From TrEMBL:
This is GntR family transcriptional regulator/MocR family aminotransferase. It comes from Deinobacterium chartae. In the C-terminal section; belongs to the class-I pyridoxal-phosphate-dependent aminotransferase family. Keywords: Aminotransferase, DNA-binding, Pyridoxal phosphate, Transcription, Transcription regulation, Transferase. Residues 27-95 form the HTH gntR-type domain. PANTHER family: HTH-TYPE TRANSCRIPTIONAL REGULATORY PROTEIN GABR. GO terms for molecular function: DNA binding; DNA-binding transcription factor activity; pyridoxal phosphate binding; transaminase activity. InterPro entries: Aminotransferase_I/II_large, HTH_trans_reg/aminotransferase, PyrdxlP-dep_Trfase, PyrdxlP-dep_Trfase_major, Tscrpt_reg_HTH_GntR, WH-like_DNA-bd_sf, WH_DNA-bd_sf. Gene3D superfamilies: Type I PLP-dependent aspartate aminotransferase-like (Major domain), Winged helix-like DNA-binding domain superfamily/Winged helix DNA-binding domain. SMART domains: HTH_GNTR (SM00345). It comes from the Bacteria.
Length: 492
């Protein structure tokens, strides 16, 4: 297509009104001039060889200091957009290939052909979570830890110590499985606290469990492969499957967790089952021992994998935590996934996968192809935090705090929403589910009143219950009381 070069003569008089800076904008005036002239040159509105008015004249016309214009011209000259001739003003560089001018314009015209790959389109169509509420005064989003209880001073001390004398291995390219001392500390912890049976070699440190889910999908699934997902279930797990082109098959859950026989009847040859056995997300059931054995037997028989997402099992307020399904597995079928997002901070982006021994090499190579490994010092500080007793202390403290916060939420709901919400205490977790009719409308009304809650039905593919997820761990009892009062006003 012909480019708009109406008068390519060096001698023609150009007006640069379109490049006049606007003092009401936040961008510095010189930067505005620079960008406007770049645009005019790249779009072909100023053709090679065009002579520009003098900086003195432009400064006068635009009401800015001459220095501002001179600096912009100098930058454009240094980058090759303009050329200057001593005593003869500035010209649009003749070196610029005329045929390529207007490239920006053409890019916009070519939009039709700028299509994504099939994989890219699947990624772009798959949000990993519900939209973040904006401008809410009280956020009852589930699964967020108490920032007010995090020992920042301890963390800062450990981090400073590591940076003062960092071992060389922390500074270069590290092991794609992760910093070995962190994997050893995790092995000890997972063995004692969760009954997980593994060697440090089987542990892969990831950037949160989301990266672990993505890794599992990439390494174990082909496009079209059916995968059992709990219904209702975790959106991040379903998103990782969809992004990999796999086919989530919803399997209902009840008071004993995943209904394994329904899964086996519906899709006996699934490649993988994704489960949250310790504390089903979002309804909270613990997978019964009978169902655990049934699930392991199905996987053995079908030659399928099981992904155990043990995201918040540390938060159990009464009784002992149920040991991990991984510890019951004698057939090497279970991959165990954990995260520091709940017990420390989501912003750390640290999680871990425990894989059966024969999968280690494949996972190690695939992990290196992602981002190689999380930052070395972050891994080392986390290992120190575990090894020096801070983790145990933090868990004990937050467990007490969260039990109190759950009680505060229940009391506030009973006080302000006695007839509107069916809600009861649970022994574990970081949120409660309050049942009511039409959770989508309730969520919208709450949002308009500045209260962020999450509708249960958003987590379901088929078996839509209606309720609100109310996360209580990140809010103080005072905030919980005020937030529930506001929620009640919005719902009644
Ligand atoms: C079921 C479940 N798994 C895992 C996670 C943690 O995700 P990540 O480790 O990527 O922060 C969450 C957090 O919301 C969750 O609810």
């Amino acid at each position: 297509m012909a480019l708009p070069h109406p008068l390519p003569e060096a001698s023609r008089v150009v007006t640069l009104d379109a490049a006049a800076p606007d003092p009401s904008r936040r961008e510095p005036l010189g930067r505005q001039i620079y960008r406007a002239l770049c645009d005019m040159i790249l779009s072909g509105h100023l053709s090679p060889g065009t002579r520009l008015p003098s900086t003195r004249q432009l400064a006068r016309e635009w009401g800015v200091s001459r220095n501002t214009v001179v600096n912009a011209f100098e930058q454009l000259t240094a980058e090759g957009y303009l050329e200057g001739r001593v005593g003869d003003g500035s010209y649009v560089s003749r070196e610029l290939p005329e045929g390529l001018m207007g490239a920006e314009l053409r890019v916009r015209q070519d939009q039709g052909e700028r299509r994504l790959s099939r994989r890219g389109a699947a990624l772009a169509a798959t949000p990993v979570s519900l939209p973040k509420p904006v401008g809410s005064l009280f956020s009852f989003r589930p699964g967020l830890p108490a920032l007010d209880a995090f020992p920042f001073d301890v963390w800062a001390r450990l981090e400073a110590r590591r940076w003062r004398r960092p071992p060389r291995e922390l500074l270069g390219y590290g092991d794609p499985l992760g910093w070995r001392p962190l994997r050893e500390a995790l092995r000890t912890y997972l063995h004692a606290a969760r009954g997980v049976r593994c060697e440090p070699e089987q542990i892969v440190i990831t950037a949160g469990s989301q990266q672990g889910l993505d890794l599992v999908a990439r390494v174990l699934l082909d496009p079209g492969d059916p995968v059992w997902v709990e219904d209702p279930g975790y959106l991040g797990a379903r998103a990782a499957l969809l992004a990999a082109g796999a086919r989530p098959v919803p399997v209902p859950v009840d008071a004993q967790g995943l209904r394994v026989s329904d899964g086996a009847a519906r899709c006996p040859d699934a490649r993988l089952a994704m489960v949250t056995p310790s504390h089903q997300f979002p309804l909270g059931a613990t997978l019964s021992v009978a169902r655990r054995l049934e699930l392991l037997e199905w996987a053995r028989h079908a030659g399928a994998w099981i992904l155990e997402d043990d995201y918040d099992s540390e938060y159990r307020y009464r009784g002992r935590a149920v040991a991990a399904l991984q510890g019951l597995d004698s057939g090497g079928r279970v991959l165990y996934l954990g995260t520091f997002s709940k017990v420390l901070l989501p912003g750390l982006r640290l999680g871990y996968l425990v894989v059966p021994p024969d999968l280690v090499e494949a996972f190690e190579r695939a992990r290196a192809l992602q981002d190689r490994h999380p930052p070395g010092v972050v891994q080392a500080v986390t290992a120190d935090f575990l090894n020096e007793g801070h983790f145990e202390r933090h868990l004990r403290r937050t467990r007490e705090l969260y039990a109190e916060r759950q009680a505060a939420l229940l009391a506030a709901c009973q006080r302000h929403l006695p007839d509107r919400l069916r809600i009861s205490a649970t022994d574990a977790g970081m949120h409660l589910v309050g049942y009511l009719e039409d959770d989508l409308a309730a969520t919208e009304r709450a949002a308009r009143a500045g209260v962020a809650v999450t509708p249960l039905s958003a987590y379901s593919l088929e078996t839509a219950g209606s309720g609100l997820l109310l996360g209580y761990t990140a809010l103080t009892p005072e905030q919980i009381e005020a937030g529930v009062r506001r929620l009640a006003a919005a719902l009644t």
